[in-house]
């Protein structure tokens, strides 16, 4: 069975997997990638003012031929006058409303949480966004919003993976109590940022049982937590791999608990950040060793 939609606290539906245009596509033309995603079954696009590629997302929406009502569009407010920035985003996207409008970072509204959220509520009432929510909010940030809110945020989009599951425990509990759905980005960290870590073991075991890939198991874990998966890829075959998660049998309770437990094991990030690239230390050491061998052999020649 393909992914089914989740119901937000305002009654609107949200597809449980989204194709994102940040991270790898940040400040890049996202048109080809978004069109490829739409043509291969994605019906939820996640973008943002600060990704500086909403125009290319709009071009992909037009060129794909997918009708507006068949695609769920999220964009995020990153600073400036809220209403004006949303109107600019709508123009760039070529739409009259977004399905979900998020405060991208608490810092974007820290000068006036109450007034900013009131503006978001007006945007929802005026039909420019069907649902409104937040991103990267802690429990304290959510409480600040809720002090004066008439509308509870529909979602909180956060970095969420087995390695930070435990540190988010109180946030996840609070969100569940308030009916705020978690959207998870960066979930593939066990593969992309921390390969070789303790989570790999239970993920590989579940993958073997299900005949699935490790990425599919990690997304199945996110799905089991009731969160929306926000991911991306440049590769067509991975789109199918990601969407295939909707067809897999669910993880067992034991598998979920084994992944949770492995995420708790202290694990040092064995990567070094070089000019924005996370390079595994082993690769870096191999390159240094290689350069050292070349340099010393050249010295011997002179
Ligand atoms: N709200 C926020 O502050 C915030 C922050 C960050 C991201 N986001 C949103 O979340 C979206 C996804 O973020 P993310 O990139 O962190 O998501 P992710 O799902 O953790 O990672 C996606 C990346 O994993 C790579 N990948 C997939 N399978 C792989 C494998 N088997 N081996 C190696 N690499 C693999 C893909 O690369 P290939 O292209 O090679 O397939 C892709 O670039 C963003 O585009 C953005 O929309 C939001």
Automatic annotation (TrEMBL):
<comment type="similarity">
    <text>Belongs to the aldo/keto reductase family.</text>
</comment>
<feature type="site" description="Lowers pKa of active site Tyr">
    <location>
        <position position="76"/>
    </location>
</feature>
<dbReference type="InterPro" id="IPR020471">
    <property type="entry name" value="AKR"/>
</dbReference>
<dbReference type="InterPro" id="IPR036812">
    <property type="entry name" value="NAD(P)_OxRdtase_dom_sf"/>
</dbReference>
<dbReference type="InterPro" id="IPR044494">
    <property type="entry name" value="AKR3C2/3"/>
</dbReference>
<keyword id="KW-0521">NADP</keyword>
<keyword id="KW-0560">Oxidoreductase</keyword>
<dbReference type="InterPro" id="IPR023210">
    <property type="entry name" value="NADP_OxRdtase_dom"/>
</dbReference>
<feature type="domain" description="NADP-dependent oxidoreductase">
    <location>
        <begin position="205"/>
        <end position="262"/>
    </location>
</feature>
<feature type="binding site">
    <location>
        <position position="104"/>
    </location>
    <ligand>
        <name>substrate</name>
    </ligand>
</feature>
<dbReference type="GO" id="GO:0016652">
    <property type="term" value="F:oxidoreductase activity, acting on NAD(P)H as acceptor"/>
</dbReference>
<feature type="domain" description="NADP-dependent oxidoreductase">
    <location>
        <begin position="23"/>
        <end position="189"/>
    </location>
</feature>
<dbReference type="GO" id="GO:0016616">
    <property type="term" value="F:oxidoreductase activity, acting on the CH-OH group of donors, NAD or NADP as acceptor"/>
</dbReference>
<dbReference type="InterPro" id="IPR018170">
    <property type="entry name" value="Aldo/ket_reductase_CS"/>
</dbReference>
<protein>
    <recommendedName>
        <fullName>NADP-dependent oxidoreductase domain-containing protein</fullName>
    </recommendedName>
</protein>
<feature type="active site" description="Proton donor">
    <location>
        <position position="51"/>
    </location>
</feature>
<dbReference type="Pfam" id="PF00248">
    <property type="entry name" value="Aldo_ket_red"/>
</dbReference>
């Amino acid at each position: 069975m393909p992914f089914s939609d989740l119901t937000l606290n305002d009654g609107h539906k949200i597809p449980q997997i989204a194709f994102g245009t940040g991270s790898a596509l940040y400040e890049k033309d996202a048109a080809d990638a978004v069109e490829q995603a739409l043509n291969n079954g994605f019906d939820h696009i996640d973008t943002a003012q600060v990704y500086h590629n909403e125009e290319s997302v709009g071009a992909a929406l037009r060129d794909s031929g997918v009708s507006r009502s068949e695609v769920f569009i999220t964009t995020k407010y990153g600073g400036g006058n809220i209403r004006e920035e949303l109107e600019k985003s709508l123009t760039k996207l070529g739409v009259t409303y977004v399905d979900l409008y998020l405060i991208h970072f608490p810092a974007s509204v820290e000068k006036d949480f109450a007034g900013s959220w009131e503006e978001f509520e007006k945007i929802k009432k005026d039909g420019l966004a069907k649902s409104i929510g937040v991103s990267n909010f802690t429990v304290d940030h959510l409480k600040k919003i809720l002090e004066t809110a008439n509308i509870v945020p529909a979602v909180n989009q956060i970095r969420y993976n087995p390695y930070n599951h435990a540190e988010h425990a109180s946030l996840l509990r609070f969100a569940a109590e308030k009916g705020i759905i978690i959207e998870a980005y960066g979930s593939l960290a066990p593969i992309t940022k921390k390969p070789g870590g303790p989570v790999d073991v239970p993920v590989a075991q579940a993958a073997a049982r299900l005949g699935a890939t490790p990425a599919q198991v990690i997304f199945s874990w996110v799905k089991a937590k009731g969160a929306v998966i926000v991911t991306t890829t440049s590769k067509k075959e991975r789109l199918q791999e990601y969407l295939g998660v909707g067809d897999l049998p669910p993880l067992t309770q034991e598998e979920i608990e084994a992944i949770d437990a492995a995420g708790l094991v202290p694990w040092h990030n064995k990567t070094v950040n070089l000019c924005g690239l996370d390079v595994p230390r082993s690769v870096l050491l191999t390159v240094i060793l290689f350069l050292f061998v070349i340099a010393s052999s050249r010295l011997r020649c002179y």
